[in-house]
Amino acid sequence: MSHLDELYQQIILDHNKAPRNFGELADANRKAEGYNPLCGDRVTVYLKVEDGTIRDIGFQGSGCAISTASASLMTEVLKGKTEVETKALFEAFRSLVMGKTTESESTEKLGKLLALQGVSEFPVRVKCATLVWHTLQAALREQQLPVSSE
Ligand code: ZN
Q1: Which positions of the chain have pLDDT values less than 50?
Q2: CATH code at 9?
Q3: Alpha-carbon span 64 to 134, nearest angstrom
Q4: CA of 51 to the centre of ligand 1 (A)
Q5: Range of the domain at 18
Q6: pTM recorded for the entire structure
Q7: How far is the CA of 21 from the centre of ligand 1 (A)?
Q8: Strands, E, within 80-125: which ranges?
Q9: Is residue 144 a contact partner of residue 83, using CB atoms and an 8 Å limit?
């Protein structure tokens, strides 16, 4: 295992053990629930959106280490981002975990989300990593129905 892999694994373990922004957001104005039947991961995303910008974000749920760490990292990265920036990050993140990212493209703006790049070696875990992002999209669309990662 390379030094970088070890570092990324530490970040995932840390975020799984002590998830950031965990809990219901009292003044949320958007909310969505997601479920990944392949693994049993469940997540609820809470957003406070004003003027197209995510002012605050929180999540709750239970799932595997990848899904929890991904949700925690996502909330850290998205606070203060606009909906347009959020969509671009989601595209970049999806490419990353599917192993489709090219060197120059998007790795810079992904920042700490890069910790999840190892997921690309385990295709069955991709849905664990992207569940919270799909749920976020649903919350931004103010979709009321629970979403599935399928
Ligand atoms: Zn999972």
Answers
A1: none
A2: 3.90.1010.10
A3: 17
A4: 33
A5: 3-148
A6: 0.90
A7: 19
A8: none
A9: no
